[in-house]
C-alpha cells in the first residue's frame, strides 16, 4: 500500500535567543503506511516533538517536505489538518465544557453537520466507554476520562492519519491498556498511526515500524523486527543510543 | 508558628521575585520613571490649559439696577466694584440690545447684576448679593463665576456681607450632562480597559498555559478565524460588562442627584443619538483594547506573564484619559489623540457640542488602530516563535524574505502621516508656511522610509530600478500634461461650483508667503521637497505594498491616499488624478525617479506661474494654473495636455531594441 505520510529531507533550525542557532532536525525522511503503527522514538531533546509539530503544521520545516494523505502541509496546511488527528502530550481541555460539547466543537471546526457530529459522538462514546461522563464538565473528570475525551476530540472527524504524542502518559495501567486496545482497533480499521512514547513496552506491543532519532538525526528507520530481531526493542534502542553517544564523544559533539 | 520557617519562605519568595525581571521592571522601574514623567506632563498640560484660559476673552453683560453698562465705568454708583471686575482683563463688558437673548445664544457668557447702591449697602453692612446669571453647562461659565467671586472678595474687604449669587439657567438635563460628561468618557475608557484585559489574557495566554490553544491551532480553523473569533468574544464580553457598569453608575448617580434637596435640580438623561454615540465610543475603545490585549497575551507564556506585560498599557492609558479631564478640553483639540478623543467624544456628545468632522476622525482613527492591532495579532498567531515561545522574541520581526511592505503597515504609515499633519500642520502654518511644508514633507519622507526599512529586507528598494532616459522624459511629459489637465478641471470646477472651502484661500496666502522667500526657495519647498518626500511614501512605499498581482489596487489606494492628504477639498480630486498618473508611471517604468521628475515639474510650474503672475494663481499645488479662460483656450490646453500625456505613456511603454551582442 502507498504511504499516507511521506517526510522527505526535513530539517528544522531554530534561532534561539539563549542558545543561538539550534539544529533540531537534520535531514529526516520516513514514510508511514495505512493499517500500521509507526513508532517515533528518541531520548528527551532528540527532536520528536519538533517532528510531530511539523507533521501537525504548527511548525514549518526549514527544509524538506511533508505530505499527508496527498496534501503538502507547507502549501495547504488547513487541508492537511483535516486529514489528521493530533494528540499532543500537553493538550488541555476546556474545563467548563462537557465532553460532548468539547468534541462537538471540534466537529464544527472540521465542518461537520450537527447530525453527523451527534452520530459520531455516539460512536466514539461507545468505542471509548465514555457514556457515563459524556455530559460532565471536563474539569470534573479523572485523568483517564480526560485522556479519552482528548482521543475523541482528535477522532471526531475520523481522519486517516492519527498522530499520538505520549498518549498513555499519566494514565494508570488499566486505562493505558484500554487506550492501547483502542489504538490497535484503529489500526485494524486501516488508520495510519504515528506513535511517540518513552515506554518500551508499548512499542513492543503496538509498533510495526520504528524511527529512532537522536540529536535531530535519524539513527534507525525500519520495521520493529529489523531493529530488535527476536530480542527486546528496549535493548536494541539502548544499544543504538549508547553507540551514538560514544560516536558523539569521539567527535567532540557530546560536549555541546 | 515558627519564625525561622517564615523567614526561610520570605527569603525564597523575595529571591524569586527579585530574579523576575518583568516584575522588577513593572513594579519598580516603570513607576520610578513613569510617575515623574506623568507629573511633569500633567503640570505642563495644566499650565498650557491655564495659559489658554488666561488669554481667553469672557464677554459679559454688567447691569446696574437693570441698566446695561457699556464699560467698567469707575464713575458709576457701583464704580468701585466695576474697577475690581476690570482687574480681570479677560472680562469684556458688552451691551447687546437684548442681554437675555445674548446669554441664551452664547454671545455673552454671563449677566452680572450689581445693585445701584452697592457702595452704600456695603458701607452700612446690609446683606447684598451680586447676581451672576449664566449657564453652568457652558465650560467657560466657571471662569466668569470665579472672576466675579474674586471681585466680590476684593471689594468687600473685611467682613462686609457681600456675596456672589449664581443664577444657573441651564435646564436640569444639561446640568446633568455637564456633570456626567466630564467623567463618563474617562470612566468609559478605564472600565473598558479593565473589562477587556482579563478575558483577552485568558483566551490566549490562559489557553496556552492550560494547553488548549495548541488543540485549536491544529484544527482546520485558520489563524485569522481563530483570532477574529477570540477578538469578538472579548469585544462582546467587555462591551456588555462596561455597558452594565456604566448603566448602573448612571442610574445610581441619577438616584443620588434626584434625592438631593438642592435649589438647582440636576437630571441625567440622554437622547437616542447620545446613547448611540456613547455605545459606539465604547465599541471603538473596547475593540482597540481587545486587539492589543490579544496581541500582548499572544507573546506571554502564562497568564501571569501576560498580566505583567499589560501593565504598561494601563500606564499609557490613564494619562491619556486625564487629558480629557479639564472642563474646557474639547474634542476638536484632541481629535487625533487616541483614548483622549473617545473620552472627549462622550463629553461633547452629551453637551451637544460635537462636530461631525471630529466625530468622523475619532471613528476612523480608532477603527484603523484597532484594525492594525488585530492584523498584528493575526501575524503573531502565524509566528511559531511566538506561539511556542521559550525565550525572548522580538515584538516585531522583519521578514527577511519580504521585498515590499505589507499593505496594512502601508495604510498605517499613511494614516500616521495624515494624523501628524492634521494635528501639527495648523500650528506650523501659524508659525510660518515654510515650516508647515518642511514639517509635513519630513513626516511623509520618514513614514515612507521607516515603513520600507522596518518591514522589508530590500535596502532602498522603494526607488525601484535605474530609469532609462526615455522614462525620465515620460515623467516630464506626464508632469506637464497632468498639470494642464488638472488646471482645466480646476477651472471647470470653479465655474460650476463657485464656492470655496476657505482652506484654498488659506493656502493661496501661504503660497504668496513662500514665494516671497524667493523663487529658488519656493521651488525647493513646493516642488523639490514634495517631489521627493511624497513620492517616497505614496508611489515608493504604499503602492508596491499591494504587490504586482493587485497592481491597480496599489495605484488606486496610493492615489486616493495622496489626494486625501492634500486636505483642501478643491485639491483632493486633482491630486488624486495626478496620483493615478504617477502610480501608473511607477508601475510601468518600475522606477520612482520618473515619478519624482513628474511631480517636481508639475509643482515647479505652479511656482513659476505664481511667481510670474501672482494673484492669478487660483490655488496652490497640482490644481493650479493661472490665466485660463474661454472655451477655446480650454480646448487647446486639453488637446496639448492629451498630446503630452500620450507622449508620456508612449515613452514609458516604449521598448528599446536589445543592444547587439559582441561576436
Explain this structure:
The complex is a heterodimer of chains A (256) and B (663). With 256 residues, chain A is α/β, with parallel strands linked by helices. Chain A has helices at 48-55, 77-82, 99-109, 114-127, 143-155, 173-188, 200-206, 224-228, 233-251, and strands spanning 5-16, 20-32, 37-41, 63-68, 71-72, 84-87, 161-165, 192-196, 209-214, 217-223. In chain A, helix 3 (99-109) packs parallel to helix 5 (143-155). Chain A is globular. The N and C termini of chain A lie far apart (42 Å). Chain B has four domains: 1-43, no CATH class; 57-170, abc type-2 transporter like fold (3-Layer(aba) Sandwich); 174-397, no CATH class; 421-653, no CATH class. Helices cover 69% and strands 5% of the residues of chain B. In chain B, strands 1, 2, 3, 4, 5 and 6 form a six-stranded mixed β-sheet that branches. In chain B, a hairpin with a 2-residue loop joins strand 1 (58-64) and strand 2. Chain B is flat, with a radius of gyration of 32 Å. The model of chain B is unreliable at 615-625 and 659-663 (pLDDT under 50). The interface between A and B is medium-sized, with 28 and 21 residues.
Key traits:
A: Rossmann fold; 3 domains; six-stranded mixed β-sheet; four-stranded antiparallel β-sheet; 25% strand; globular; B: mainly alpha; 4 domains; 24 helices; flat; disordered C terminus
Question: What does the secondary structure layout of this molecule look like, with pairings?
Answer:
The complex is a heterodimer of chains A (256) and B (663).
Chain A: E1 5-16, E2 20-32, E3 37-41, H1 48-55, E4 63-68, E5 71-72, H2 77-82, E6 84-87, H3 99-109, H4 114-127, H5 143-155, E7 161-165, H6 173-188, E8 192-196, H7 200-206, E9 209-214, E10 217-223, H8 224-228, H9 233-251
Parallel strand pairs in A: 3-8, 3-9, 6-7, 7-8
Antiparallel strand pairs in A: 1-2, 1-4, 4-5, 9-10
Chain B: H1 3-19, H2 21-54, E1 58-64, E2 67-69, H3 79-86, E3 91-93, H4 99-105, E4 110-114, H5 118-124, E5 128-134, H6 141-156, E6 162-168, H7 172-210, H8 213-218, H9 223-259, H10 272-299, H11 303-322, H12 331-334, H13 340-351, H14 356-381, H15 384-387, H16 407-431, H17 433-455, H18 469-496, H19 503-515, H20 519-542, H21 551-564, H22 569-589, H23 593-612, H24 631-653
Parallel strand pairs in B: 1-3, 1-4, 5-6
Antiparallel strand pairs in B: 1-2, 4-5
Amino acid at each position: 500500500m502507498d504511504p499516507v505520510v511521506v517526510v522527505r529531507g526535513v530539517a528544522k533550525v531554530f534561532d534561539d535567543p539563549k542558545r543561538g542557532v539550534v539544529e533540531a532536525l537534520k535531514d529526516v525522511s520516513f514514510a508511514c503506511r495505512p493499517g500500521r503503527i509507526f513508532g517515533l522514538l528518541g531520548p528527551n531533546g532528540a527532536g520528536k516533538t519538533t517532528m510531530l509539530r511539523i507533521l501537525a503544521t504548527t511548525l514549518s520545516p526549514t527544509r524538506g517536505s511533508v505530505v499527508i494523505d496527498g496534501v503538502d502541509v507547507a502549501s495547504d496546511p488547513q487541508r492537511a489538518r483535516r486529514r489528521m488527528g493530533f494528540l499532543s502530550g500537553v493538550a488541555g481541555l476546556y474545563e467548563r465544557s462537557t465532553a460532548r460539547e468539547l468534541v462537538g466543537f471540534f466537529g464544527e471546526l472540521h465542518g461537520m453537520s450537527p447530525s453527523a457530529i451527534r452520530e459520531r459522538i455516539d460512536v466514539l462514546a461507545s468505542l471509548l466507554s465514555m457514556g457515563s461522563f459524556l455530559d460532565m464538565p471536563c474539569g470534573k473528570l479523572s485523568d483517564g476520562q480526560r485522556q479519552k475525551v482528548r482521543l475523541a476530540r482528535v477522532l471526531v472527524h475520523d481522519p486517516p492519519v492519527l498522530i499520538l504524542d505520549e498518549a498513555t502518559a499519566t494514565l494508570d495501567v488499566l486505562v493505558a491498556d484500554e487506550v492501547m486496545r483502542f489504538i490497535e482497533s484503529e489500526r485494524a480499521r486501516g488508520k495510519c498511526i504515528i506513535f511517540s512514547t518513552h515506554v518500551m513496552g508499548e512499542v513492543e506491543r503496538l509498533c510495526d515500524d520504528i524511527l529512532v532519532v537522536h540529536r535531530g538525526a535519524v539513527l534507525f528507520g525500519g520495521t520493529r523486527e529489523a531493529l530488535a530481531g527476536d530480542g527486546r526493542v528496549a535493548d536494541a534502542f539502548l544499544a543504538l543510543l549508547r553507540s551514538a553517544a560514544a560516536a558523539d564523544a569521539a567527535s567532540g559533539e557530546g560536549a555541546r | 508558628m515558627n519564625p525561622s520557617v517564615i523567614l526561610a519562605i520570605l527569603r525564597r519568595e523575595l529571591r524569586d521575585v527579585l530574579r523576575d525581571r518583568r516584575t522588577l521592571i513593572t513594579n519598580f522601574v516603570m513607576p520610578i520613571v513613569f510617575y515623574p514623567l506623568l507629573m511633569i506632563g500633567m503640570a505642563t498640560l495644566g499650565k498650557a490649559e491655564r495659559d489658554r484660559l488666561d488669554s481667553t476673552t469672557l464677554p459679559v453683560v454688567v447691569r446696574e439696577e437693570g441698566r446695561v453698562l457699556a464699560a467698567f465705568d469707575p464713575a458709576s454708583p457701583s464704580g468701585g466694584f466695576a474697577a475690581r471686575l476690570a482687574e480681570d482683563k479677560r472680562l469684556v463688558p458688552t451691551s447687546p440690545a437684548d442681554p437675555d437673548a445674548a446669554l441664551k445664544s452664547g454671545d455673552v457668557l454671563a449677566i452680572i447684576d450689581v445693585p445701584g447702591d452697592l457702595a452704600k449697602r456695603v458701607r452700612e453692612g446690609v446683606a447684598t448679593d451680586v447676581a451672576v446669571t449664566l449657564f453652568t453647562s457652558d465650560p467657560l461659565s466657571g471662569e466668569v463665576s470665579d472672576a466675579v467671586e474674586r471681585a466680590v472678595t476684593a471689594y468687600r474687604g473685611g467682613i462686609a456681607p457681600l456675596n456672589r449669587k449664581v443664577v444657573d439657567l441651564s435646564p436640569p438635563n444639561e446640568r446633568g450632562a455637564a456633570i456626567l460628561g466630564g467623567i463618563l468618557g474617562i470612566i468609559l475608557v478605564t472600565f473598558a480597559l479593565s473589562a477587556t484585559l482579563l478575558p483577552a489574557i485568558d483566551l490566549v495566554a490562559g489557553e496556552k498555559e492550560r494547553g488548549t490553544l495548541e488543540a485549536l491551532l491544529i484544527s482546520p480553523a485558520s489563524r485569522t478565524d481563530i483570532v477574529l473569533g477570540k477578538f469578538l468574544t472579548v469585544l462582546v464580553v467587555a462591551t456588555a460588562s462596561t455597558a452594565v457598569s456604566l448603566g448602573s453608575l448612571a442610574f445610581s448617580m441619577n438616584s443620588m442627584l434626584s434625592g438631593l434637596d438642592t435649589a438647582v435640580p440636576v437630571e441625567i438623561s440622554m437622547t437616542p443619538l447620545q446613547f448611540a454615540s456613547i455605545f459606539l465610543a465604547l465599541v471603538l475603545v473596547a475593540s482597540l483594547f481587545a486587539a492589543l490585549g490579544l496581541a500582548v497575551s499572544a507573546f506571554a507564556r502564562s497568564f501571569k506573564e501576560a498580566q505583567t506585560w499589560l501593565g504598561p498599557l494601563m500606564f499609557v492609558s490613564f494619562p491619556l484619559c486625564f487629558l480629557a479631564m479639564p472642563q474646557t478640553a474639547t474634542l476638536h483639540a484632541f481629535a487625533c489623540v487616541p483614548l483622549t478623543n473617545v473620552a472627549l467624544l462622550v463629553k461633547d456628545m452629551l453637551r451637544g457640542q460635537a462636530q461631525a468632522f471630529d466625530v468622523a476622525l475619532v471613528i476612523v482613527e480608532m477603527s484603523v488602530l484597532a484594525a492594525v492591532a488585530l492584523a498584528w495579532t493575526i501575524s503573531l498567531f502565524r509566528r511559531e516563535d511566538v506561539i511556542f515561545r521559550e525565550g525572548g522574541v522580538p515584538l516585531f520581526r522583519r521578514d527577511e524574505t519580504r521585498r515590499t511592505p505589507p499593505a496594512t503597515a502601508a495604510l498605517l504609515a499613511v494614516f500616521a502621516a495624515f494624523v501628524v499633519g492634521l494635528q501639527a500642520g495648523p500650528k506650523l502654518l501659524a508659525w510660518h508656511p515654510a515650516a508647515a511644508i518642511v514639517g509635513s514633507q519630513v513626516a511623509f519622507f520618514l513614514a515612507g522610509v521607516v515603513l520600507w526599512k522596518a518591514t522589508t529586507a530590500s535596502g532602498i528598494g522603494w526607488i525601484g530600478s535605474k530609469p532609462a532616459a526615455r522614462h525620465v522624459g515620460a515623467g516630464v511629459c506626464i508632469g506637464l500634461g497632468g498639470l494642464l489637465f488638472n488646471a482645466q478641471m480646476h477651472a471647470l470646477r470653479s465655474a460650476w461650483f463657485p464656492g470655496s472651502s476657505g482652506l484654498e484661500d488659506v493656502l493661496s496666502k501661504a503660497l504668496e508667503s513662500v514665494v516671497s522667500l524667493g523663487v529658488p526657495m519656493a521651488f525647493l519647498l513646493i516642488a523639490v521637497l514634495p517631489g521627493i518626500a511624497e513620492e517616497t511614501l505614496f508611489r515608493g512605499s504604499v503602492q508596491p505594498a499591494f504587490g504586482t498581482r493587485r497592481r491597480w489596487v496599489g495605484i488606486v489606494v496610493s492615489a486616493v491616499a495622496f489626494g486625501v492628504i492634500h486636505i483642501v477639498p478643491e485639491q483632493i480630486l486633482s491630486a488624486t488624478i495626478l496620483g493615478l498618473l504617477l502610480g501608473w508611471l511607477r508601475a510601468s517604468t518600475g522606477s520612482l525617479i520618473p515619478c519624482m521628475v513628474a511631480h517636481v515639474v508639475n509643482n515647479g510650474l505652479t511656482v513659476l506661474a505664481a511667481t510670474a503672475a501672482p494673484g492669478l494663481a487660483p490655488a496652490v499645488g497640482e490644481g493650479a494654473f493661472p490665466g485660463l479662460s474661454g472655451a477655446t483656450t480650454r480646448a487647446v490646453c486639453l488637446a496639448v495636455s492629451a498630446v503630452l500625456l500620450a507622449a508620456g505613456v508612449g515613452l514609458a511603454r516604449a521598448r528599446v531594441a536589445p543592444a547587439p551582442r559582441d561576436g
